[in-house]
Amino acid sequence: MIAVEINPALVNKISQLGRFIGNTPLFEIRNLIQKPGVQIFAKLEWQQFSGSVKARPAYQIIKDAILSGELTPGKTLLDASSGNTAIAYAAIGASIGISVVICLPENASEERKQILRAYGAEIILTSKFGTTDEAQERARELYTNDPEKYFYADQYNNENNWKAHYNSTALEILKQTNQEITHFVAGLGTTGTFTGTSKRFKKEAPNVQTVALQPDEALHGLEGWKHLETAKVPGIFSADLIDKTIQVNTYEALGLLPEISKKEGLLVSPSSSANLLGALEIARQIDKGVIVTVFPDNAEKYSEVLQSIF
After folding, report:
1. Burial class (CB in 10 A: 0-12, 13-18, 19+), 35
2. Which of 15, 53, 104, 159 has the fewest CB atoms nearer than 10 Å to its CB?
3. pLDDT tens-digit profile of 69-87?
4. What topology does CATH give the domain 15-47+166-309?
């Protein structure tokens, strides 16, 4: 039997960091919807370490790799990302002393690239036309050529991605809504948020309707989202968890951003706006219910988008 190398100092560092992951607040959308009997809440996921929902899976992936001996101080964490998971990896890596290499589509926002460099991550840019599918291929190629150098996190196929939400996001929502949630609405990217949260709801609260959001066309502008009919489907995705699917239009999502800021006091990302657009559609369809969605991040990494809107 091969001895597993577990570094006690690294275990301690990642364990201490866990205090700053998750437990994000639930914010009620009060002014964009005023329909008696229907409420919409959003998890403000940027209010945790590294500033986005991706802190949860990145932390779970890294912690599990450290505890299993796959990730040691001598190895470099490698993965493909559209941006937020990359930033979470880089922030956690900087905090615990692990090097990070990210394969990133070249059309990722400049803010994302600057943040990654600030955390000391190495960026390998791939074609914007290949989306994260091509970035995954590049990361896999690097790992195949030098497996001793890298720990390949492989977020699209790593079960710790969805398990992070199964073990935290879903339970937080159930507690915060006093188990009164009736609908969970989330966009599909790596699909970790939707898959993990929905899996837990199917077990703990099977009456919750799980609503998956997708871009309405292949050439969309929702960074991090996947049009699953034309993109490579993540290995962690479970289609049988979907009770309902809603198609989201990029321009409608972007058009909602000023309304969210002016009526709710939140400056959010396009993905957050797209999630709210889906939640509002569900609100129009029902007479009574508690709808919960996720705001993956705020607007700080999207200045180019915001400048074109406001």
Report:
1. middle
2. 15
3. 999 989 999 999 988 999 9
4. Rossmann fold (3.40.50)
